Amino acid sequence: MQIRTEFPRPTRTIANTFIPLADGTRLAARIWLPKDAEEDPVPAILEYIPYRKDDGTAARDALMHPWWAGHGYANVRLDQRGSGDSDGIILDEYTQQEHDDALEVLAWLAAQPWCTGKVGIIGKSWGGFNGLQIAARRPPELAGVISVASTDDRYATDIHYIGGALHGFQKQSWASTMLAYNARPPDPLFVGDRWREMWLERLDQTPPFLHEWVSHQRRDDFWKHGSVCEDYSDIQVPVYMVGGWQDGYTDAIFRFMEGYGGVSKGLCGPWGHVYPHSGLPKPAIGFLQDSLRFWDSTLKGIDNGMLSEPPVHAWIQEWVEPSDAPHVERPGRWVAESAWPPVDRPEPTTLHLRADGTLAEDAGPAGELQFTGLQHTGQDAGAWTGWGFEGDDPPDQRAEDGRSLCFTSAPLPERTEMLGFPEARLTLASDRPLALVAVRVCDVSPEGVSLLVSRGFLNLTHRDSHEHAEPLEPGRAYEVSFRLNALGHAFQAGHRIRVALSPTYWPFMWPSPEPVTLTLHAGAASWLSFPVRPPRPEDDALTPFEEPEVAPPLEIEHRSGSGPASPKLTIDRGTGKATLSIVTHDSVDRLVEADLVVEEHAVDTYSIVEGDPLSAETRADWTIGLSRGDWRTKVKTASVMTSDPDSFLLTDSVDAYEGGRRIFSRSWTKRIPRDHI
Q1: Domain identity same for 208 and 129
Q2: pLDDT per residue over 474-510, tens digit each?
Q3: Domain extent at residue 491
Q4: Are 556 and 59 within 8 A, CB to CB?
Q5: Rounded CA separation 112/117 (Å)
Q6: Are residues 174 and 267 in the same domain?
Q7: What is the CATH number of the domain that holds 283?
């Protein structure tokens, strides 16, 4: 990664300014812009998130925003209402208030003497979501959006209800993270003596987000709000959708490209939940240069060819040996598509799940195969949102395959590349009224090593609709269809394709309340279709991306901690209890310029007892400290989620400390009825 210190336009930084809203609320912003912007105005680029500009994302911001400023843009990193040094309370993700505030902010930015009146929005994850959502409000100042690692569907392809099944792995963990994040105080360096009053107000009034999320178990109006897939035509500006194969939000790139009728581009690399210039696994790309071309085109009207190039670029991944250690690099190659969905592809290849356990184009004779779920199936799932960390990659899937009903193809006679969505059509019967099915696709080497390349889930009570669930009639066969996660993968000649089915996948999916046995009607009644993409000569003629280039990094003094650690699985042979423990944060760092010490420790724990789905429990524990000189604060949170046959039970607590003395303590408990889950 090259660090650029000289830019076409010298820049200056406004460490903090408050943007006023009509209701008297002030939102805190850091702004980077060319020194001469008042004499030669520039477009503005907004990143609008609740992760705290002064400490939470300061290191990441330092690499990006000054770089764009040096190339002729005013970059604004804004803390949302109720976060960082901004006034108010944050009540949930993607609220109407969040969007309304953004519209006022865009108008304020466009009216500044250093701005031309044109504004773009960029963001990753939360900021990628709300960039699309704000665009759907059609603010006149907005001229383009870059949305990274986001989704257009809040219900089915976020951390909530994938395939209508409750996401056990990320949902409670992320809600607990936000509980801890929201409990942090503002910085007295910028808000002055008000910091303590603001902090106590936040502690008292900010709710645990999870309670509302679990209260809405169907795709109702709560989830439709902010899901731009409800009507893509609400957006009328160019959109650049960006992500990576190791991330949990990849599908949205291709789904948005498929559904949006306006100008759009899609980019999918090998990366996890990160910006591509910091991309892990490698190869990272010169994303700042690439995005600059998008901004120059959309915000400055420069005809640089960006929007007339092939709209989709994707990294086709090669086979790698599964490993507990992170893959620093994923071998592969870039390809491009002139349209999405592709218009010049052969029909998808259909492979049937045959009664003899093979996978083939010929359906073979019909047969019925029963399979019962082990509660710890899914323990080798890897991360849902990878970051390139140790333990993110799924390990060898042979143990998982052994816990599943598997169908394996003959060795492939030639290299076979795929890009797009595999689709499953299965005919299944259940012995219980509530059940789910997990489907995995693996690349099996000649030595038998099994590499996970795609997976998908369906709550079978949602077989017809995520809005109107219906229990299963035990013993009755149902035909169900659903997409698996998109993939970009090359199966080598001699490798085999394996499809594995299970009615459990913990902790990714919350288990059904009773052990379930499913019966698959094999043969012509059950198959998967695969998006085979024949190689093209023009693939080799693509213009390569530039090497990563960034602004100088923030100076950080690392004091202690080892960062995220590999998941640790322990199984009590006496009780059958399997416990998966993941250290997600472990660090004490000093931000030198701000003289701010940031301490973060977090552990997620998932446990279940074999044979007892009602034993499932998720727990998240956080400690966050902020200190500068004599100013010392700390928050501790704990969140636990369990269930019984009829309900989910949620408990959360927050304790806050000032100078070592506890000044606030609160706990919440909520029981929420299960709704066909």
Answers
A1: no
A2: 999 999 999 999 999 999 999 999 999 999 999 999 9
A3: 349-533
A4: yes
A5: 8
A6: no
A7: 3.40.50.1820
Same domain, residue pair 491 and 360:
yes
- What is the residue whose two structure tokens read 């099915």? 437
Q: Is the pLDDT of residue 566 over 80?
A: no
CB 408 within 8 A of CB 359: yes
- Does residue 88 sit within a domain? yes
The answer to whether residue 215 scores a pLDDT higher than 80 is yes
Pairing of strands 358-360, 332-337: unpaired
User: Is residue 540 in a domain?
Assistant: no
- CA torsion through residues 19, 21, 26, 29, sign: negative
pLDDT above 80: residue 635 = yes
Q: Kindly state whether residues 496 and 635 are assigned to the same domain.
A: no
Q: Name the DSSP letter for residue 282.
A: B
CA distance 321 to 314: 21
Same domain, 398 and 501: yes
Cα→Cα distances 405→34, 349, 401, 612, 666, Å: 60, 21, 7, 20, 46
Q: Is the pTM of this model over 0.85?
A: yes
| Residue owning tokens 């969040």 | 98
pLDDT at 388: 81
Do 268 and 409 fall within a single domain?
Answer: no
Last residue of a domain, which of 304, 337, 370? Answer: 337
Cβ-based burial of 303 (10 A; exposed 0-12, middle 13-18, buried ≥19): exposed
**Could you tell me what percent of the chain has a pLDDT over 70?**
100
Q: What is the pLDDT of residue 389?
A: 81
**Same structural domain, 403 and 467:** yes
Flag whether pLDDT at 610 surpasses 80. yes
CB 53 within 8 A of CB 29: yes
Tell how far CA 670 is from the center of its chain. Answer: 26
CA distance 14 to 44: 14
Task: State pLDDT tens for residues 15-41.
Answer: 999 999 999 999 999 999 999 999 999
